[in-house]
Each structure stands twice: as C-alpha cells, then as structure tokens.
Amino acid sequence: MSGVRGFGFTEHGGLDRLAFVDIPEPTPGPGEVRVRVRAAAFNRLDRFTLEGIPGVEVARPHVLGSDGAGVVDLLGGPTDGLAVGDRVLLNPGIWDGTCDECRAGREALCRSYRIVGEHLQGTATSLVVVPRRNVHPLPERLSFSEGAAAPLVFQTAWRALRTVGQVVPGDRVAIVGAGGGVATAAVQVAKLLGGHVVVASRSAEKRERVLGLGADAYVTFDAEHPLDRVLWQESGKRGMDVILDSVGTPTLPRSLRAVARGGRIVVIGATGGPLAEVDIRTLFWRQASIRGSTMASAREFDEVLGHLASGRLRPVIDSESPFDRAPEAFRRFGEGDLFGKIVLRGPGV
C-alpha cells in the first residue's frame, strides 16, 4: 500500500518528539470523502495530543492537526452535492449519527465523539478522509488558509457562549486570555451575540489587536492586581454575567469570585492545569454555575459557517508556513506574541 507524508510524532513527549512521518494512504469507504489538503491549522489541542492525553490512545505514527481546507479528491460512493475538485473545509468533530444524542441533534454529546488530529489521524498531511457530513463548501470569501483557521475555534466559542453560556444582549462577558485561536474567535462571537466584551490578559501587548476585533475593554492582571479584582472593578462591582475560562488551575477560583449573581463560568480548556479549588459558598450564594463545553453540534457548526460566509465572523491567522517548515511553525505556541491560528500549507502547495 502506498503512503503519504504527514507531520506529527511516533512517540509521545515534548517538542523534541515532533517529526515528519509516513502513514498509509487513506481510502474513503461508503459515505466518506477524501480531501486533498491545501491548508491545515494547529490548535493547543495538538500540544496535548503530542504530550499524551490520559485515556486517549492514538495509532502511531500519528499526524497532528484538527483543522483543514482543500479540494475533494475522491468520493467513497454516491455523495449528494459534492464533486471532485470542489473547494471545501472540514468539521473536525466526528460523531456516530446513531446514538440517542445524535438523533436528537446533540452530536457534541455523542458517547463516540472523536476529533480529527486527537483520536484520528490529523490534517497536517496531503490526504484526509472524513464522513460526508463533515465536508462543507468553503465560503467564497475565504482562502484555503482562512478556511483551515476557522472550524475548531469558532465552533468551540459559539457553543460555549451561545448554547452553554447563554449570552444575551447586554450581558457582561469576560474572556480570560487574549492571543489564542479560541480567544480571538470568542471576542467576535460574544460581540455578535450582543455582549459587552472584556478581555483579561497578563500582558498589555495585544490590547490594540483585541480591541480591533470588537472587544469593549481590555484589562491586565498579575499577582498584585489579580484576575477577580480587575474583573470586579471593570464590571462596576456587579460581576461578570459570563466568563469564558480556558486556563483552569490558576484562574478558575478567581473567575468564580468575579462572576455576577446568576452568572455562568464556561470552562473550555485547562492550559494552566486540570485541577482547581473553588469556594462552594461563593458558588451557591451567588447562584452561579460552572459549566463545561467542547466542540459543537452539527446545527451549531452550520450557524458558524453561515456567519463566516457573511463576513460577520472572520478567522484570525497568526502565521502561515510551508509544510517543510512545520516544526518551526508548531513552536509558535511557546511564543508570547502569538495571536490567532498557526496555519500550515499542505505538501506541495
């Protein structure tokens, strides 16, 4: 069997484990589509996958990358509305379509839910096979790189803020963190939903770029000026109605102290650690809630795609690199000036 070259790893570990790897050439089965990748994008999830996520086994060698855009290369039998050569982007969330949650339109809760690049071979290669329902026309206004930069972060932000966080016009919405892909998407989503958007960061360097995305305020925090205090002051001592927290251990206890009565803290990640202590008294006295969210349903993804097609939401690209510079591109995650998504052009592009 012929193979394809990808970028990923053969053994879990640190950045020294990154490598170009060879995997079997994927062939689409019934109801599947093979896409020739023109652009892929990395997420912080790729760092965790490289390091090894407890309970998640991956076939090795493993190709990284959850996001991708390209052209239809091969169809696995009849697939309505698609033809070889069509420009498409991929929804990286894979569900079985048969369980009770899927039949109810709650695909993100599917017990068999998997993510391209985490549980399955990723997009940092030349050819990717996914189910037909995960292949969407690339909006005309988007380039392949922009199409690759959008899917995971925008669906994550959309579900977290609209569905789980229940943001309504006038809500005070705080986003903890400024430069990551989800943060740049969340600013736009929260503003689109009518929120008063406050971004909290440890650095003031990204202030103008964040405000340029539509944020209403930008605050910085440190040991002397902790997160809860600056958000409490910014809210006029009323608290934030919704706080989007992807950091975890160092920020979640302080997010709780900054939340309004009846407010919602939505947790979408744990880049700063997975365990945190919270004051339960604050939780019940303010009648607040801490909610988890990840990825999105098929309907939510379609909603996001519609806003991307109209230009109401726009992907933010930090950098774009050729395939053979993948190791250097991936190391951008460790640089403090990161702002938006890291995009990798497909092999030969």
Provide the β-strand percentage band: 25-35%
Helical amount among residues, as a percent range? 25-40%
Characterize the largest beta sheet: strand count, sense, and whether it forms a barrel.
7 strands, mixed
Rg: 20 Å
Large-scale geometry? globular
The ordered string of helix (H) and strand (E) elements is EEEHEEEEHEEEHHEHEHEHEHEHEHEHE
Low-pLDDT segments: none
What's the CATH first level of the largest domain?
Alpha Beta
CATH topology value of the largest domain: Quinone Oxidoreductase, Chain A, domain 1
Q: Do you know the CATH architecture of the largest domain?
A: Alpha-Beta Complex
- In terms of structural class, how would the helical and strand content be classed? alpha/beta
> What is the helix tally?
11
Number of strands: 18
Can you say what the CATH homologous superfamily of the largest domain is? Medium-chain alcohol dehydrogenases, catalytic domain
Mean pLDDT level: 97
Give the N-terminus to C-terminus distance in angstroms.
Answer: 24 Å
Structural domains: how many: 2
